[in-house]
Amino acid sequence: MTDIERVRNLLEQGRYAESAARCERLLRVRPQHAPAMELLGMARIGMGRLGEGVECLQYAAALEPNDARLLMRLGEVLMRCGEGARAAAAFARAIERCGPTPQLLYNLGAAQQRCGDSAAAIDSYRQCLALDPRVVEAHNNLGTLLDESGCYGEAMECFAAALEYRPGYVRALTNLGKVQRQAGQAAAALATLEAALAAAPDHAAAAANLAATLLDLGRIEEALGAARRAVAADPGLAEAHFNLGRALCLRGEREAALTSLRQATILKPQHADAQALLGQELLQEGKCPEAIGHLERALAAKPGLADAHVLLGCALFRVERSQEALGCFSRALEIDPCHTRAHLLSSWAHEMLNQYPQALASCERAAQLAPGDPEILSTVLNCCIRTFAWQRAAEVMQRIRELPGGLAATNPFVLLGASDDPAEQLEASRGWGGRMMLGREPLPGLRSYDHPRIRIAYLSRDFYNHATSLLAAELFELHDRATFEIVGVSYGPDDGSAVRARIAAACDEFLDVRLSSDREIARALREREIDIAVDLKGYTSWARTEILAYRPAPIQVSFLGYPGTMGVGLVDYLIADRCVIPEEERRYYSESIVYLPDCYQVNDRQRPLQTGAPRRSELGLPDERFVFACFNNAWKISAPVFAVWMRLLQAVPGSVLWLLDAGPWACERLRSEAHARGVAPERLVFCPRVSFALHLARQRLADLFLDTTPVNAHTTASDALWMGLPVVSCAGRSFAARVAASLLHAAGLGELATGSLEEYEQLALSLARDRTRLAALRAHLERKRLAVPLFDTPAYCRHLEAAYRRMCAQQRAGLAAQTFSIERATR
To answer: 821: which strand partners?
Structure first.
């Protein structure tokens, strides 16, 4: 027996170290002995030293460049090492040396497939099968590549050919079932995959594909079982975890779904569908930064996923990166120009960028693609309101009313600007809130607490330089710390402002939860055993009202931020007063109402009272003429109100209307509307946005504040009254349309709250012509500023605290929430 034969025997026995030692001795004598170098390579590979083994085989192949067998062995080892490109080169050289054989062509195709050269692999497999159609693995692999390229018909032919030569071949059955499913042949796929599992009950890929097929058929429970079977058979199969995650998503088990989807992406980071679905579910949970990462990875793996671009845009939009979001929606529309949701969401992004004409164009395009979609019509309505397209807004509102379920699909906050009917607002809130609660079950273990101090959590995005905080800052400072423990829960930006610092300092604990999911925030409140969760956002922009669906506290309250009903069981109580919710309108509110004695709105007495203001001429105002003013957001200006304003300008010679600048297009549009009504456009004067203190100070230059309807001035009216500027308002039926009336009554100026636009116009004209009466109103505000209930913040705080105590007593007694009134406290 020769030395080479002895080494081969040792290798067959697995005695790799001895084999290597003998080869090394041989090579010291004959350094260029190709067989010894080849066997040394195999011995080192057997010892786990793959890199050294490959080097030996490469050296042996260089010594024997015409040995196709040696090149084939080198290629096979390189494949084991994951070196597809180098393996392909070795197989190609072997073919050059000895000509093509079915085995070499199959190996070449496998190597090319490994390194991602699909076109070359397809060609190699076809050449292999031309020489020998019985190579079933070549049929199977060729079918897999054709499947990936979307050639489902040819792929199915390949798998069928493999099964013809090897009936019951489980890999081919599994792949055939997968392609049948992708081609829309769900019934055929089901039969094929069940046959695969009958042949191999523990075949993970077959079970995973069966789960996917069952999901397509809506058979979720069976799919769940198949997916779990796949995971049990092969815990390392990404597709099994992905389909388990899909099934759990459809069952509403989001936490378990997230676990499965995360595992799928760990096992296969380039699994675009798993990354996209994980991103979608994280987005639903409010974990936007994490969602963004997964969606970006999905698109890196598969850039043509239009839906993933849309989801990424949604996540960026939620973290207020609207310009980047717009880019995502644009890329989705490049892939699919008829992607309705991309057009709709483009509209939302344009709106956030104050590009309202573009926003209207985008949502109108979405409406063309889905003319009966009430959610899209709701967005069209919003854009029409914000672009002063009043006639189109009226048409859209009528269309929404006519559609079955139209009001229930309408954004309640948008509806405030289009309808003064509380019944319609209740319907919209019920639909909106109902969808918000889907898939969000209350956390387990909700119970009553018995703390010595009542624990109150205020939840808001607006703990920064925002109207809500400018109203409520002093309330947090005045809460009785002997009776109440205050937690601020901020999911909005930290702007470093003084008002944010005030609120944070006034709380016993201030939580910045921007990066937490809705469920995590709810859990944090449960862990702190919060007695009352007070929501300051409702259905306004950027709200995370979904937190309330998890029931973070036994008592939940809507307060200050949203002038309307939530419509569903998200909150138990709504803080109001007898003016904003008259007794006869109470049936349109799903909450129990807490009636405060004077006004539902709190105020901050720390507002600056700067007396120095610019001269009128510096701001483009006439020195001696009458100045009507309205500093409300421009979208609150309705057609009937604007018509009244124009008649007032015509009736008061030389007067001007002083408005807040909402951008060049808005100024141009409103001036055009004025011209159409016979008023010189220059009589509309627009003031830029400035610091809060300067904005308050310049209000002293106006003569009379003209309110809007159906959405009144809220904080803006309080600011005006604080600065001594009389406000004329028109009260409607809804909460939002009665706020200014409530403020005026609480300021001792109830006579300025009218009941119709005719009365509103007559009163405003009368005051413009009676400077003496106007001066008396100003004097009343200046003289009694801190005496009127509107600005008696300590008394307001006592009233609100009395309400909180009563809520807790009711709840701790095991009684349901019920409407009640708080009596005015005595000093």
So the answer is: 595
Residue 59 predicted with pLDDT over 70: no
* Percent residues over pLDDT 90 in the chain: 81
Task: Give the tens place of pLDDT for each residue, 127-176.
Answer: 999 999 999 999 999 999 998 888 999 999 999 999 999 999 999 999 99
pLDDT given for residue 149 in this prediction: 86
Tokens 């605290």 label which residue? 801
* Whole-Å CA distances, 352 to 13, 49, 289, 346, 355: 73, 60, 19, 10, 7
Residues 6+ apart with CB under 8 A from 261: 241, 242, 245, 274, 277, 278, 281
Q: What is the mean pLDDT of residues 334-349?
A: 98
Tens of pLDDT, residues 544-577: 999 999 999 999 999 999 999 999 999 999 999 9
518 to each of 442, 504, 697, how far by Cα in Å?
Answer: 12, 21, 40
pLDDT band at 110 (very low <50, low <70, confident <90, very high): confident
Dihedral angle of Cα 618, 619, 625, 631, to the nearest 10 degrees = -160
Count of Cβ atoms closer than 10 Å to residue 482 Cβ: 7
Task: Enter the pTM of the model.
Answer: 0.84
What are the tens digits of pLDDT across the range 265-302?
Answer: 999 999 999 999 999 999 988 899 999 999 999 999 99
Work out the burial of residue 768: count CB atoms within 10 Å of its CB; fewer than 13 is exposed, 13-18 middle, 19 or more buried.
buried
**Is 610 a member of any domain?**
no
Q: Structure tokens of 159?
A: 């798998």
Q: Are 436 and 581 found together in one domain?
A: no
Residue type, position 362, single letter: S
In the chain, the amino acid numbered 210 is L
Mean pLDDT to the nearest integer, 59-73: 74
Asked if residue 748 is part of any domain, the answer here is yes
Q: What is the domain extent for residue 674?
A: 625-785
- Residue 572: give its domain's CATH number: 3.40.50.11380
Contact 655, 666 (CB under 8 A): no
CA distances 759 to 142, 679, 729, 765, Å, are 81, 22, 10, 10
CB 560 within 8 A of CB 483: no
Task: Say yes or no: 587 and 640 in one domain.
Answer: no
Check whether residue 673 and residue 737 sit in a common domain.
yes
Q: Are the C-beta atoms of 295 and 279 separated by less than 8 Å?
A: yes
Partners of residue 489 on adjacent β-strands: 459, 511
pLDDT single digits (tens) 200-223: 999 999 999 999 999 999 999 999
> Which of 389, 409, 440 is the endpoint of a domain?
440
3-state DSSP assignment of residue 555:
strand
C-alpha R_g of the chain: 36
Q: Specify whether 414 is located in the same domain as 480.
A: no
pLDDT in tens, 695-715: 999 999 999 999 999 999 999
pLDDT reading at 649 higher than 90: yes
Distance CA 241, CA 825 (A): 61
Are both 633 and 771 inside the same structural domain?
yes
Domain boundary among 785, 802, 821: 785
Q: How far apart are CA 506 and CA 480, in angstroms?
A: 11
In the structure encoding, which two tokens stand for residue 314, read together?
């949604």
Q: Write the secondary structure of 790-804 as one string of H (helix), E (strand) and C (coil).
A: HHCHHHHHHHHHHHH
Residue 401 included in any domain? yes
| Cα(469)–Cα(463) distance, integer angstroms | 6
591 and 633 co-located in one domain? no
Q: CATH code at 706?
A: 3.40.50.2000
**Are 468 and 575 part of one and the same domain?**
yes
Cα(256)–Cα(227) distance, integer angstroms: 13
Count up the domains in the chain and report the number: 3
User: Is 644 part of any domain?
Assistant: yes
**Pair (631, 750) in one structural domain:** yes
Phi, psi of 191 (to 5 degrees): -65, -45
Q: Which two tokens stand for residue 575?
A: 């803080």
Q: How many Cα neighbours within 13 Å face the side chain of 696?
A: 17
